[in-house]
């Protein structure tokens, strides 16, 4: 007899050679089904050989379960096995089973196994995951009679209706883990909404109900049509191929479409870079469109299966009109061919959902009929005045707009009705701060606008809620939200291109000139308010005047503010924060005051700010002259850039330390409601900004604003707002004390400066880098220069910039640090002799670019 070690080596080689051949053949022909079945058969033969070799008792049985059971064994997947015994194993059998599992691992199989008796199987099947696995059991070796008893008992133990409800609940929980969206940047091909699990769920439920375990059987049973079966299989093949290639690329089981693999995967699938879209973006757009279709099919077919099996489906029918009725709280079309004969009722169905709050959705037959009728939405359909009127009725309804637009998008109707929207469906944006596809982002923006109108959410954005409830014809806001990014990915300025689309739509749909002008103006200017708030010195009256001239009047200001807040909130859950909210609100209120009263002389601004600060100081019982020693050293620019309460805070802490030789550092919670405000007062020195940046970066604080002022007697009076990246808000008092003590120590003259933090690039930034954009231009008054930087964010970035400025003897006056996800958009107001020399400016830009492109 050959020693077991030799057998193990031979089996391992057999498995490796077999897998290598399968991989080679697959990479030549791309046949997913052949690969999955071939891999299953290869493992079948190996397992049967080992089972016989070990002479396991003839009363036991080896069973394939799970994905292996249905003969869909992916390259990196576990081999799921059930070893069924007639009774609990004795010691000798237990040792043999241990030897079996050890041999399988030594052979190179990653085995997931369980050893059970029949009663144990039935007991364990109370768990829905186990029950699902047993549903796909397939005989491999051993006692066929016991296997037959097992399959009969498992089927008898299965309550189809309970199984159905359990699988629906399981799916809801799975969706919740992925935030109920298929549009994740790194989706899971198997588990994400719209992934392979959604298709498997349909077959599991239909199999439990005795209706069929594959798409052909469902078609034969009229559960789906032959065409639908073909479409489903096409989507399934695409997802299977992606998963197979992903396993081969990762050389292990990996079901997430990680950034690390997207580019290589796209190349393998035949995509190439184009002018406006990377190969990986084209691949991901197809994936997202597939996931959307799979999610829709999952919803339609599970609803259809429920209607077929639920006796309640025959009751509670209430007519709505000649074409539609309500059945069990769902909108149902009375004749499934009606959409084909009379396409205009396609839009009417969505309007009815809005007008009947008692309806929770559409029936499976209605959804399927709508899905089949989408080709009817063509140029003639779009030109028909009655259809245009119906669409505008949908936009103007007081409830249900977000839900119906999402459903229209899911069914492909919105993209057919607005062709420009159809082009951006599933289009990813690798700009490092949008985490949704363009269409999903647009839906989020419209949702946010509608959310402002709901009283239950008024506490989230009180200003926005108050403004929108007094805004006439709010449909202009929703249309602006719908069109603001609709031209993404075409090349050129998407705001300008989108304006053309929006104007054409508004005129076709009969909007007044005033409303048309408002929609197009909002689309064209939707980035202006955020850029002004985050990149310009809004304490400068001339900045406010320029912005006010652009918005023209209060209505345009309100509309732009509402759209801007909704837009930023719709990019990513991480991009919005209280600080950004305060910047926008401050700009809004300053512009509102300007529009109400007109321009105000600079001296009046200064006097007003100082008077407010003195009033605050009197509340703290300060003497009338307490401020004089400090204010005598400060120039007018200081009073313009700081709010009255901040000026008073500075006086309270510095009135007795105007000539202090030691650094004074004070910290408090930011009045903006988020973050920490830090005041630093110390004799000025060249590397001060570098030291401060290094301290905050090393201690997980993100600088969002820096106001730098140098007094007449050579002191730096700097004000920073920082956000706590480590989420230590529960210990904020300790944080304030830590900042005050540690930062003052770091700023003492005898302390050597620390080198910049060497932070690593994120995986997203590594695979989708941003080419740094650097601009140095004089401001309108030619007093300062404006340094604008756009780059991928990373730890230590600001320190790197500070070191370059120090090297070139550049003096910093104000910094606005805008971090959008993993994208930094920073603006600095600077002065320096080198800035007057064009060659030196080029050297400055080159040094900054070198630092920003560093990969470590």
TrEMBL record:
Nuclease in keyword set: no
Chain intervals for the UniProt region annotation (Uridylyltransferase): 1-319
Stretches assigned to coiled coil: none
Cofactor requirement: Mg(2+)
Any one GO BP annotation for this protein: regulation of nitrogen utilization
Keyword annotations from UniProtKB, A to Z: Hydrolase, Magnesium, Multifunctional enzyme, Nucleotidyltransferase, Repeat, Transferase
Domains: entry comment: Has four distinct domains: an N-terminal nucleotidyltransferase (NT) domain responsible for UTase activity, a central HD domain that encodes UR activity, and two C-terminal ACT domains that seem to have a role in glutamine sensing.
Protein name: Bifunctional uridylyltransferase/uridylyl-removing enzyme
Species per Swiss-Prot/TrEMBL record: Sulfuricella denitrificans (strain DSM 22764 / NBRC 105220 / skB26)
